[in-house]
């Protein structure tokens, strides 16, 4: 059997050690996690957001990875916090278009860190431009809601999350539900409010499961779940609505 094709938007990089010029890159840990899960990673050139539907037509799933900050204008942010970094309008436009198409079409979607934030914004949610206490270079426990898709993937209880982010969800997007939190209330997991419905397969985590996926079966299971969903026939897509502010602080 052929491996399901998993689209992974590339990230712009000013330099890469093996190349002489600016590069487009994908984290090796992400690519390897998809491969171990049985998928075929397909690193996409982040251009022509108007044609993402046509370009993704050949793909079976999408992995929206971490990266720099999304420009706050996309979620009605007031000004730009001095802590913002690696903001790129071309990258933003492409990621937003990919997320919107995957959600609307029911294409299985795993969103990691920035990817989760992109999905939340596409659904009309907002972000906190800079957290009071950053979650950078930090491994901490995450409590997972029982009965959720995420709990089914990771197992009951919780997990240790490898985090690198200074932003988080402020207002939750419509049709989404919080499935995991850190001890300080930070949203660490999101999925469809009706994850068992017909809206398609979507899982979002604020942490980086690829950091430890090679040695931690629970973290690898996140990527394997995406590949499994991408291998299944896709059903009709339902419209989800609603929205709520996220508390916990």
UniProtKB/TrEMBL annotation:
Pfam families xref list: Peptidase_C26
Protein's UniProt keywords contain Hydrolase: yes
Keywords: Hydrolase
Superkingdom as given in the UniProt entry: Bacteria
Gene Ontology MF terms in the entry: hydrolase activity
Family matches, as CDD domains: GATase1_2 (cd01745)
The protein's name in its UniProt record: Gamma-glutamyl-gamma-aminobutyrate hydrolase family protein
Organism from which the protein derives: Actinomadura vinacea
